């Protein structure tokens, strides 16, 4: 079970990175290098948040009680929320003029969750 979880997380992180780079390339071609870098920063935030929350949520072993697994999940999501606020506040100061591309990069990583859900749904059929 842990191996499948780890495989899914790695697949998701790769997809998020690819979507971020594709978004950065599009912004780079259409709007310029500063916007492309801002997209990469937003995508990097998304990838980092996914990695941190997956590591924390996956810390509970498969032998753990369901309550322990849920507690690990909730702690991971709380940590993710706090980190997201801190990172976006810091990035908002550094990329004040380019915050829309930062959000675009982050949204690209959120899109990866929907793609992952479709993939897992098809695998369950």
| Rounded radius of gyration (Å) | 16 Å
Number of domains: 1
Shape: flat
Kindly report the oligomeric state of this protein.
Answer: single chain
Largest sheet: none
Strand content: under 5%
Low-confidence stretches: none
Report the order of strands and helices.
Answer: HHHH
Task: Give me some keywords for this one.
125 residues, mainly alpha, 4 helices
Explain what you see.
The protein has 125 residues and is mainly alpha-helical. It has one domain (2-124). Helices cover 87% and strands 0% of the residues. The longest helix is centred in the first third of the chain and has 29 residues, at 2-30. The chain is flat. The chain starts with a helix and ends with a helix. The mean pLDDT is 90.
Give the arrangement of secondary structure elements.
Blueprint lengths: L1 H29 L2 H25 L8 H29 L4 H26 L1
Short summary:
By secondary structure, the protein is mainly α.
